[in-house]
Amino acid sequence: MMNFLDPAAPSPTPQEIARSFRWLGWGGFWLQALLGFIPILVVLSSVLFRPARQTNFFSFGLWLAIICAVVLVFSAYWCFHYTQIARKLKSPDLRPAKSEVLRDLKIGVVANFSIMAIAVIIALSRVGGLTIKMLSMPQGATVIMPNQLGTTINPGALITPSNMIAIQAMINAIAAGLVGAIVSLLLIHQVGQHRNS
Fold it and tell me: Taking the complete model, does pTM exceed 0.85, yes or no?
């Protein structure tokens, strides 16, 4: 399908390029849908099920997460769009110009690198905050606080399961962006190898 190491490789035909668009488009779509499920679910639950004390506005991190989720949905759609380009490439009458195809692929690259950049910024912030929490606790200590119901462990000083789910969501978003970027870059390479005859 792709021959990266042979500079004298024959130019791929439009039908071969269309096959690559179809396979990589569907593969990218399903991988991004699977990897993007957890980040989108986490963002939706953060927006819809917020504590009553925080209803007046969203934090900057939550806005970034919303933007990341929206771009992730767009990127999955854009991988599906590659399958539509494959259909057009098969027909000589509907075949788009090479510059138009490259423009669409570059949009995919920018969207996927945006996902990765935003998710890395969120992850650095979130993991940094959790690291500060962990370093502020004495080594080997458990924080126990008395309250009206009895003695409980202070949830503010510990890493909770929701923190781990949020970190998993960020890793999934980065992986989904990586999948989309690889798909777009592979297709850019193949379209770039095509020489008009």
Answer: no
